[in-house]
Amino acid sequence: MEKVLTVLNALLPVLSGIGGAFIGGYFTRKSQHDLLSREIAREDTREMRKELRETLDIYSKVLEIDGEILFTVLIGGSHTEFEIDKYQEKIRPVLYGKFYLIHNDVAKIVSSMDSLIQECNFNEEITSYEHKVLCQEYWKLIRIINEHMQKFRNDMQNSSPK
What is the distance in angstroms between the CA of the first residue and the CA of the last residue of the chain? Predict the structure, then answer.
């Protein structure tokens, strides 16, 4: 019995040390993992904000150009004509500069307009119907960009401290 007590007295500090090291290591690892997870989440949020800012810069530039240049012209009655050359020179490069950042709905309209313009170039003419469709798509583009800008403003107001 004395031998058992001697062995237990010798093993108990070793087992306590091993157990303490294991528990300490576990909690250290857990706290480091939690800290790293929070840091990754913070970095992701920063990156998303940066991309949102860049997207809003693109939209702001498009709206600025739209305010400076007339892209749809009334040519009599209810007939409108779309200024394709001005659009391709001024608006299109801004949108395609960072096309991957713009929202899907905006990208779809731009792609649709590009397809119709390519078709007109292929046919070497543009009908009044095609002008009308391009004008409608352009107005839709501007409306949706304004909606995204308004949503951003609303989100900013709702998230600001009161």
Answer: 73
For residue 99, what is the enclosing H or E element? none
Question: By CB neighbour count within 10 A (0-12 exposed, 13-18 middle, 19+ buried), where does 66 fall?
Answer: middle
Please tell me the number of Cα atoms within 13 Å of 127 on its side-chain side: 6
Give me the phi and psi of 48, to 5 degrees please. Answer: -65, -40
Q: Per residue in 16-64, pLDDT tens?
A: 777 777 787 777 888 888 888 888 888 988 888 899 899 999 999 999 9
Q: How do the residues of the chain divide into helix, strand and coil, expressed in percent and rounded to 5?
A: 85, 5, 10
For residue 19, give the DSSP letter: H
Q: What gap in Å lies between CA 152 and CA 11, rounded to an integer?
A: 65
Distance set, CA 148 to CA 41, 91, 93, 144, 152 (Å): 25, 17, 20, 6, 6
pTM for this predicted structure:
0.74
